[in-house]
Structures are given as C-alpha cells and as structure tokens.
Amino acid sequence: MTGKTANPAIDEEALEDLQRMRFRKAVARKKRKEREAEGEIKELNITAMMDIMTIILVFLIKSYATSSITTTSSEDIRPPISTTRLTPKDTISVTITSKHILVGDKKFATLLNGEVQKQDLSGRLIVPVDQALKKQVEKLKYIAERNPGAPFTHELTVIGDKRVPYDLLLTVLYTAGQNELENYRFVVVQKD
Q: Which fold has domain 81-190?
C-alpha cells in the first residue's frame, strides 16, 4: 500500500462530497456577491447628507441651551432678588428698563421719566409693543398648528428693573393681555 485506500468506492464518494461542497460554496459566494452589488452605493448624495447634518445641528443647539432667558447686565435693569427654584421657560419676553420697553431683543417704546411717551399710547395700550406682540403670538400660533409638541401656552416672561413703576407694569401687562398673553412670569435674580 502506497497511501491509497484499498476501497476505490469510498474514495469516489469522498471526492463527490468534496466537489459538491466546493460547488455549494461557489454558488453561495456568487449569490453573496450579487446581493452586495445590488446594495452597493456607487455615489454619495451630498444634499441628503447636508440635510441630515443641519437637522442634527439644530437639535443639538436647541437641546444645549441651559436657559432660554438672556439678560444683558446694565445700569438700566436690575431684576429683583428671589429664592425661587423654577427655571425660565422659552416664551415671548418683554423687558422693561428705565429707558425702553423691548420685545425680545428689539426696542419698541421709549420711556421718559418712567412713563411711555404719549404718541406711543392709545388709551392704556402701548401701540408699538402691541404690534410686536401680535407678530410674536401669530408666529407661536403658526408653530403650534404644525407641531403639537409645541403648543401655544399664552405665557409671557417679563424682565423688569426692580424700580419699574407699578402703573407702567400694569400698562405693559394690559398690552400683553390684549394679545392673548394671559400667564405672566417675572424674571428675578436667584438668591444664593
């Protein structure tokens, strides 16, 4: 015996099994390559990638904000001190300084000795502030119609100097009330 088995039928059977196995592997390899070729991306769609990155960036910026209320420190505004633990919400904000009334970051009325100038008043309504609040409310309602997760809450944040006259504060709140802003939040400096 020179290393071959004595029974040629067994060798033929083993050879057939080996050929069958090689054939199956070759068929499986061919099918796998065909599947990979079908799902292969031949070019990169940069527009879709930019859309995805923009959405992710907006989400990250929106979720990063620690507080939605920003105030600039100046001699015109010194909010009162409080021991509250509540955090400000993202709402329309009206800032009352000793010289101006701002909606958001824009000045809409000028004050003279703590009073609104006569040309800006219509009864108790501050006309420029009223127009600015109308635009803000319309924008929030538009967003609420299209996004149930961001309902219009009728909330207003008032940032005011602690020396603001009560009558001026009532005039601002009356103007806000005429624009469906019925829930007020006053910004205060948190006491340590």
A: Nucleotidyltransferase; domain 5 (3.30.420)
User: How many CB atoms are closer than 10 A to CB 95?
Assistant: 25
CA distance 90 to 63: 12
Q: What is the DSSP letter of 150?
A: S
Write down the H helix ranges in 39-165: 46-64, 127-146
For 83, the token pair is 């021991």
Domain boundaries, the chain: 81-190
Shortest CA distance to 124 belongs to which of 158, 70, 169, 81?
Answer: 169
Collapse the DSSP code of 184 into the 3-class scheme (helix H, G, I; strand E, B; otherwise coil) and give the result: strand
Per-residue pLDDT tens digits for 34-71? 877 777 666 778 888 899 999 999 888 877 655 555 55
Give me the sign of the Cα torsion angle 176, 181, 184, 189. Answer: negative
3-state secondary structure of 43: coil
Bridge pairing between strands 121-122 and 106-112: unpaired
* DSSP structural state of residue 118: G
The pTM is what?
0.53
For residue 20, give both structure tokens.
């069958």
